[in-house]
Automatic annotation (TrEMBL):
Keywords: Zinc
Superkingdom of the source species: Bacteria
Record-linked InterPro entries: GlcNAc_PI_deacetylase-related (IPR003737), LmbE-like_dom_sf (IPR024078)
SUPFAM superfamilies listed in its UniProt record: LmbE-like
Keyword Nucleus: no
The UniProt record lists the keyword Zinc: yes
Sequence intervals crossing the membrane: none
Native source species: Paeniglutamicibacter sulfureus
Pfam (any one): PIG-L
Name of the protein this chain belongs to: LmbE family N-acetylglucosaminyl deacetylase
Length: 251
């Protein structure tokens, strides 16, 4: 299958999925900021309300409202104006057909060049990256992309509503196990925007300086792995060609 070449692959529209508010800001917001600065249309979809996250005694409804507002503010800082919320319960996300149908609907509506999602494989080096909701997000999106998005017989009610089947070119997965990472994006020039986006999620970060040191260290490590200049920063992805030039009859 093809390897993504940023010099030759057109990226005009991108749809990004996260399990919780702040997942995309940790995993991909630097890349998103670079895309939007270049004129790419990017939309977010957050699958759960993040209602089980936080460090105080607010009700689930109050936490949900806070986390929606935090995510919208964070998205706006990196140039994303549209944020979809699927409303699944935090900690209970499953790659079921209710979720997958909504994923298919969004992809067929936007018809993006790239879908960004969490990785469906468990990362044993840092298990916190593999929250069950993270794995479910990646699995739901991956299952939806093939074959449902491009199969007109999947979820026929969507076709009846005018949402025709669509062959997605690329799937970019973040939070991947290190052995799966095969593409890195330099984010040095937009790293401050990434940090600003993360700072919007104050309900989740009791120690903001520690969070920022961690994110900078991780980004510097990826910059080094990418062979960039000393001090340069990057984000890593497992990029999968869904429909490449050599894809025939769905294979």
């Amino acid at each position: 299958m093809g390897i993504f070449d940023p010099e030759t692959e057109p990226v005009n529209r991108v749809l990004c999925f996260g399990a919780h508010p702040d997942d995309l800001d940790f995993g991909a917001s630097g890349t998103v900021a670079a895309w939007t600065a270049a004129g790419v249309q990017v939309e977010y979809c957050i699958m759960t309300d993040g209602d089980a996250g936080g460090f105080d005694t607010r009700t689930a409804a109050e936490i949900t409202a806070t986390r929606h507002a935090e995510q919208r503010a964070a998205a706006a800082l990196v140039g994303v104006q549209t944020v979809h919320f699927l409303g699944e319960a935090d900690g209970f996300l499953e790659p079921n057909h209710r979720v997958m149908q909504q994923v298919v609907k969004l992809i067929r509506t936007l018809r993006p060049d790239v879908v960004v999602a969490m990785h469906p494989e468990r990362n044993w080096e840092r298990i916190q990256r593999s929250h069950p909701d993270h794995l479910a997000c990646g699995e739901a999106v991956t299952r939806a992309i093939y074959p449902a998005v491009e199969n007109p017989f999947s979820y026929p009610e969507l076709l009846e509503a005018g949402l025709e089947a669509y062959k997605l070119p690329w799937l970019w997965l973040y939070g991947a196990p290190a052995e799966r990472e095969n593409h890195r994006v330099e984010i040095t020039q937009v790293f401050d925007l990434k940090l600003s986006a993360l700072r919007q999620h104050l309900s989740q970060h009791p120690d903001v300086p520690a969070m920022e040191r961690y994110v900078r260290a991780q980004s510097a490590d990826q910059g080094a792995k990418a062979g960039l200049a000393p001090g340069a920063l990057a984000e890593a992805f497992h990029v999968v060609a869904v429909n490449a030039a050599d894809t025939i009859a769905g294979f």
